[in-house]
Design goal:
Length: about 150
């Protein structure tokens, strides 16, 4: 079952259950997918759907932090709930072992004499392509790559 199909099924279930908060959240996700489709003028791939979801999660987390700083704890809790609900639709993140082995595999392709901080961009690009469609923290990934170089 694709992500869009799962969202549609959950949207119907939320309608039947009259779960207004979840219904509004799922409608906003479907709307974001549709907007991205219009922008790209083609159906979304799994990687693009994941990217849209990750962007929405990031927005929710930033909004929750802002609400907390402003003293609106109830609204922050709602943003946290939405971020968690969206997180459940993402594929599983790669494990540390998967990341480490992928870094080692990519490093093996580069001769020892050519390894330098300048090759970081090449490594990051290859790793991001390898883990496309799966949520991964780019900052943590770059720190691991930098440590290996």
């Amino acid at each position: 079952m694709s992500l869009s199909e799962k969202l549609t099924a959950d949207l119907k279930a939320a309608m039947k259950a009259k779960d207004k908060p979840k219904l509004n959240l799922l409608r906003s996700v479907k709307s974001s997918f549709k907007n991205k489709e219009i922008e790209t003028q083609q159906p979304l791939s799994v990687e693009e759907e994941t990217a849209v979801l990750m962007k929405m999660i990031k927005q929710r987390k930033e909004a929750a932090d802002g609400f907390r700083k402003g003293g609106a704890e109830e609204r922050a809790a709602n943003e946290d709930w939405e971020a968690e609900a969206l997180q459940s639709y993402l594929p599983p993140a790669p494990t540390d072992e998967e990341i480490e082995s992928a870094i080692e595999a990519e490093l093996a392709k580069i001769p020892e004499s050519e390894r330098s901080p300048k090759t970081m961009g090449v490594l990051m690009k290859a790793l991001n392509e390898k883990f496309a469609g799966r949520p991964i923290d780019g900052k943590a990934l770059s720190q691991k790559v930098r440590a290996k170089l």
